[in-house]
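Hi everyone, sorry if this is the wrong subforum. Our group has a chain we'd like a structural model of before ordering constructs, and none of us has done structure prediction before. Sequence below.
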Amino acid sequence: MNFTSFINKNADEFLRKPALGFKKDNEWKEINWTVFRTIIFKIANALRENGIKENDKVAIYSENCAEWICFDLAIMALGAITVPIYATSNTEQAAFVLKDSAAKIVLVGNQEQYDSAFEIIENSEFLEKIVVIKKAVWIKKEKTEYLENFMKHGKEAFEIVDKKEDDVATLIYTSGTTGVPKGVMLTHGNFQKCVEAHFDFFKFENFVNEHSLAFLPLTHVFERSWTLLCLYGGAKVSFLENPKLIANALTEVKPSLMCSVPRFYQKIYGGIQEMVNSSSESKKKIFNWALKIGGEVAELKRNNKSVPFGLSFKNSIANKMVFNKIKNKLGGNLWFMPCGGASISAEVTKFFDAMGIHITVGYGLTETTATLTAFPFKNYEHGTAGKPLGNTQIKIGENEEVLAKGDGVMKGYYNLPEETAKVFTEDGWFRTGDAGKFDEKGNLVITDRIKDLMKTSNGKYIAPQPIENLLSNNNLVQQVMLVAEDKPFVAALIVPNFEFLQEKLKEMNIPFTNWKEIVELTQIKELYKSKIEEVQKELSGVEKVKKFVLMPSEFEISSGEITPTLKIKRNIVLHKYKELIDSMYA
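Answer:
Right subforum, don't worry. Here is the predicted structure as tokens:
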């Protein structure tokens, strides 16, 4: 078997049906399944012509684009191994992945990536060639070729190389909130069985008519697995190169499906809440009425009960008056949105359910080919991570650690037998590093990362993620990190939502100078203090944030403060802002 065998099946069946969407010359274009297969096979043949054999490593160092997924599928169809590198990686980070994996060819997207790759190739004993996607990138002649020219070496006819289930398909280097990146070995069997498990779990109908928008980095296991699942099922996938343009892309592409991380939903939720709070009393009443009606409908559907005609009629009015305006800003067609990468609070998922957009919360890791558990369409429980998929087994081990077995669990870490041994128990259970429990209905509840649990100097344990979610479910806060380990009380580093705060400054008649000065203003500190006090009313005294600092700029991927899926690297931030943190406890 080779996971990419679905390419032939779908191309034979769907022929002229659109497979991929992409933006070129400021216009959305598409290619059909017949052309899609031809491109993949031409790349696979070109790779072979350039000396790539089975189990050789080929890297992709680029933003999301149609070429990314074509190259990925070509590598795997050839029986070689794809090594994704985050588009935001600097030269040093890219060099580590390329050297550790011994990749022979790298596909790059922009000028910065090419310059990094060229610097690396000059000193590399493994890397032989750089293939460049964009013609706008200025290249040197040595060891470099544009993708368009590279593909000319490839014939259209190609036979997908047969692979065994446990043959490695990809090496995904963990961005990791701690430690040195490790190459996670995922196999053809991991991908095949996980995709099949999803279709069995969700029982999708008419999936070929769906349209997904890929805007999270394809380098991350979540977007890549979801995109491959969509293509496997015959759905169309459009690729957004710049994730900052997501608002425009949603209204242009009008996807029906899309995976995302909690921050995306929190931002929408916070924005709507703020808009409602600043509305007239009559508009507030209409919104709250619509939310109540939508919530009642969602609860009946969640519990697999029919919706009475009267309630259904009221819900159609609620949609026309309120929800459709919000949904149209998301393109108007979204109905199913997998959410992963971090925890999300029940109030956010209930809100989207009331609008008729189902956020399917899932839980998994790179090491488990993404999803271990997820919300089913019916009888799910808000505030949980859902039920296991396929043959996944979950149990709770020592220190409440979530342990897993199943088809999605990785083969191991590349060239790191000792590290691999550390994350498996003697009887073969994978240690996730997350603390969790089961509710009375068998749903998994993730309480926190075990390494993230904080013990105050008073001996009290704090789980930061639920509190951080609570603090960031509004439009004032972009990012937040709690501090409590060995401290007498909980404090926080808070990154404002600068876009929203800019508008707030106008309302407050505060002239803008620079963010460093603005976050130090007494009026701004008081604004945040009152919001924090408001949202943490229900927390116990020991959990409440007693002091905070407003940061003058966002935590950045490029500086190593956050991962590409926006998770804060606590150890980096703690070290970098030690003096600032200490000042809160002075």
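For your construct planning: The mean pLDDT is 94. DSSP finds 20 helices and 25 strands in the chain.
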